[in-house]
Amino acid sequence: MKIAVTSENELAIEIARAFNRKSNEVEFFVVDNPSKIYAIKPDVLIHTYEIEMFESNLKPNVAWNTNTWLSINLARVASKLGAENIYFSTFMIYDGKRGYYKENNPPNPVNYYGLTKLAGEVGIVSLGNFLILRVGALFSLSYRGLLYPFIRASVRGRVLRCNTNFFLSIVNIKSLARIVRDLILNGSRGIINVGSNRVSLYDVCVYLSDIFGNDVTGVEGGYRDFSLDDWILRRGYNITLRAQEEVKKLVEEQIRYD
After folding, report:
1. What's the domain range around 154?
2. Is the pLDDT of residue 15 over 80?
3. Domain total for the chain?
4. Is residue 81 very low, low, confident or very high in pLDDT (cuts 50, 70, 90)?
5. What are the Cα distances from residue 158, in Å, to 140, 213, 225, 246, 252?
6. Ramachandran area for residue 86 (φ above 0: left; ψ -120 to 50: alpha; else beta)
7. Rg from Cα positions in the chain
8. Domain holding 63: CATH number?
């Protein structure tokens, strides 16, 4: 099997590692333009290249050109060659007023990052032969997503002030990589939510405190619930993510970085 990724970022590297632990019959390639896709003719194209949340909201033109326009153009070429397109979307395609979002719930992006991802979804779905993963709050020690400021502050031993009324589902990059591997080997298609059980941001901060030893203060901020319903992932593929266990995986990263 030939798998192409659109960048050599952290997620792409973790996906390659996940496959190397499971199978020796997979070749990985990096493609960043249509001509490379034509040359390699991959079986699967994984859209790992993205402009992350904070930068997307600061540089909307760059985010649109990358998360939406580039992804769709590369996907179009892959689709012509019969490849499956795997695209990472986000819980931020929703507005956080409901929670427990199912795959068929109407989107209403909360920010520009969410808008670029939703538009990318629409374009890639129109091509057929796709797997869209709507990912909860993705994190690692270095991934600059929603949880990054809290993880960085926790590592530095600072007091965390965390909203007790902000709910979400989370997923460690390592877990996402293994799920991608398993879904590819299973021949999965469609739209699937990927995230842990529903937890508050305060809960996540407490889990971080258990690892890094910093203090946490709960703050009653505005209410939002971005949690994802994981029924398809759990019942269809027997995959369940527990938020506290996801955070504990940061210990492995901390040891590696030390």
Report:
1. 2-257
2. yes
3. 1
4. very high
5. 18, 9, 26, 21, 21
6. beta
7. 18
8. 3.40.50.720
The model carries a pTM of 0.95
Dist. CA 56–CA 218, nearest whole Å: 28
The encoded tokens of residue 192 equal 């699937």
Which tokens belong to 175?
A: 């877990």
Q: What are phi and psi of 89, to 5 degrees?
A: -100, -160
Quick one: tokens of 118?
A: 């939703």
**What torsion do the CA atoms of 183, 46, 243, 228 make, to the nearest 10 degrees?**
-80
Give the pair of three-digit tokens for residue 94: 């929703």
Torsion from C-alpha of 213, 228, 145, 17, nearest 10 degrees: 90
Q: What angle do CA 243, 244, 249 make, to 5 degrees?
A: 100
Is residue 25's pLDDT more than 90?
A: no
